Amino acid sequence: MIKLNEKDIRALKLGAISAAAIVLFLIGSKWYEHWDKARTEVKVLKAKLKDIDISETKRKGLMAVVPTFKMPVEEREQQFLFRDEFNNELKKAGIKNDPLQIIPNRRSPLSGYKSLHLSCTAKCKFSQALDLLAKLNENPYLVGVEEFRMKLDPKKRSEVELNITVSTFTKIR
Prior knowledge:
By secondary structure, this protein is α+β, with helices and mostly antiparallel strands. About 50% of the residues lie in helices and about 25% in strands. It contains four helices and five strands. Strands 1, 2, 3, 4 and 5 form a five-stranded antiparallel beta sheet that branches. A hairpin with a 6-residue loop joins strand 4 and strand 5. Helix 3 packs across helix 4. The protein is elongated.
């Protein structure tokens, strides 16, 4: 072993301290970059939150436009719920309809669900048919309008024959 003198020991200590300082500087600079990115992201997110923060009246207005939806239940229960709700919508629009026809179930592209279709034939005024269409999004069970046909009565121009088929999902047991 070589004996180290005082000058060599000081040089080794200074070298070790310098190496530790370099490692700390590299780790510290990476941490500072990460910290700086995180602060920038927080500022951006706070700005976005400030942009979306709206008054209660505006929020209620927006929620009134969004259609409601209830998750599907078992087939028999969903059939009655959907039919009753659709009948109520027809009554609200003032449409006198023939009894609703349930079209046989078809498999849905969504696994675990079937689609249930209701067909309705009615005679009504053109404005009543449009009222029905405008209010359909209030039905929480409605998935879509599969068919909508209006045929004008040539003798009574204000009346139309309406054929509409609407659908919902039902849960498979």
